[in-house]
Amino acid sequence: MDELEKIRQKRMMELMQKLGGQGEQPKQEVIDHPIKVDASNFDDVLAKHKNIVVDFWAEWCMPCRMIAPIVEQLAKEYAGKVVFAKLNTDENPMIAGRYGITGIPTLIFFKNGRPVDKVVGALPKAELKRWVERNL
């Protein structure tokens, strides 16, 4: 926990320096690829981004592998609007359990850190796009 507090303090100092003491709002970081999340950064990533889609997956899961390129494409298409993240359920069973993940792939749309919708299974890109649009 002490290490996490040091990281938080460092990030806060960097943010304050970027703002230069002015009352400006920090610009949202544009991320055009899925970011890896795990137990060490999951909550921080959710808190940092307004709209985030988390892909709960596992290495052995063939449907997960099938949608991986779609998730990559959507991350590029929605860069600046939605952040896409990938969480390996085998490596992070506690987080998967927290959100009741019983089948993968599962994609959960988070708004302001809270889950608002989820889809389970390997859906076509067009359906995933409609799902993202519906949740924006």
Automatic annotation (TrEMBL):
Pfam families: Thioredoxin. One of its GO terms (molecular function) is protein-disulfide reductase activity. Residues 17-136 form the Thioredoxin domain. Keywords: Disulfide bond, Electron transport, Redox-active center, Transport. It comes from the Archaea. The lineage of its organism: Archaea, Methanobacteriati, Methanobacteriota, Archaeoglobi, Archaeoglobales. GO terms for cellular component: cytoplasm. This is Thioredoxin.
